[in-house]
Amino acid sequence: MERFPDPQSLVKDLHQTGFKAIWMLDPGIKYEEGYFVYDSGSERDVWIQTADGRPFVGEVWPGPCVFPDFTQSKARLWWAGLVKGFIANGVDGIWNDMNEPAVFKVVTKTMPESNVHRGDLELGGCQNHSHYHNVYGMLMARSTYEGMKLANENKRPFVLTRAGFIGSQRYAATWTGDNLSTWEHLHMSISMVLQLGLSGQPLSGPDIGGFAGNATPKLFGRWMGVGALFPFCRGHSETDTIDHEPWSFGEEVGSLYIEMLVLYFKPIGFLDVDVSF
C-alpha cells in the first residue's frame, strides 16, 4: 500500500490513457495473523497441510506463506469470493504466477510431496501432494476464472497462468515461463507454443525478448516479428534488465512493433476467445 495507496484511482488513470490493468495473484498467502486473507482462510480451514496435520508454511515473495488447497470446493469458493472483491478495484484481468506451486529455499523448488490435500471425492479425495501437484495450477486458474465471473457475468474473464494441465484452456491463457534473452530461446519459443497448441492449450506465448538478460534491438525486433503470430503476445523482463517495451530499443524497433501489432490484430475477429481484449 506504500507504493499504491489508491488502487482504484490508479486503474482509473490507466484506463483514461488507454491501458488495461492485469494484476498478479500468487497462491502463497502471507503467514501473518491480522492479515485479512490469512485470517479468513484460517477460519475456513483451507490451507494445504503437512503430513502431521499442520498448515504447510513455505517461503515465497511475501516471506513465510501458507497455500490454499484448491482441491477442496470450499477453498475454491473462498478464493473466488476474494477475486470478486479484487476485481472491484477496476482490474481488467488476473495473472496467476508461482502456481506450480513454487517455494523458495528448497532443492525441488516446490512443496514436499508428502503434504496433504483434503480434496473433494470427485477429484480423488484426500491425497498427498504428489497426486495433485500437476493439477494445482489449473485448479487455481479455475478458481480465479470463477471469481471473475462472479464479479461480472457479462464479461469474459482474462486469466493468465504459468502452471497448467489438460483442461487449463477452459480458464486461462498460458505463457511459457521465465526464459532467457537469447536466440536459442527465441527458437525454442516457436516449438513450445506449437506443442502447447497440439496438447490442447491454444492460447500461449513466451516472454518476448526473454525474461532474464538483456535483449539486443535485433533480437527483440525479430522476436516481436515472430510474436505477432503467437496467440498470446507480450514483452516482459525481470528486475535490473532492459525494459522489454519497444521504445527501449530505438525508433526502428518501435516502428516495427507498430507494424507487428497491426498484423497481430488482423485475425482477432476469427478467434472464439480473444486474449487481447
TrEMBL record:
PROSITE patterns: GLYCOSYL_HYDROL_F31_1 (PS00129). Keywords: Glycosidase, Hydrolase. GO terms for molecular function: hydrolase activity, acting on glycosyl bonds. The keyword ATP-binding does not apply. InterPro entries: GH, Glyco_hydro_31_AS, Glyco_hydro_31_TIM. It comes from the Eukaryota. Signal peptide: none annotated. Residues 2-258 form the Glycoside hydrolase family 31 TIM barrel domain. PANTHER family: ALPHA-GLUCOSIDASE, HETEROGLYCAN GLUCOSIDASE 1. Belongs to the glycosyl hydrolase 31 family. This is Glycoside hydrolase family 31 TIM barrel domain-containing protein.
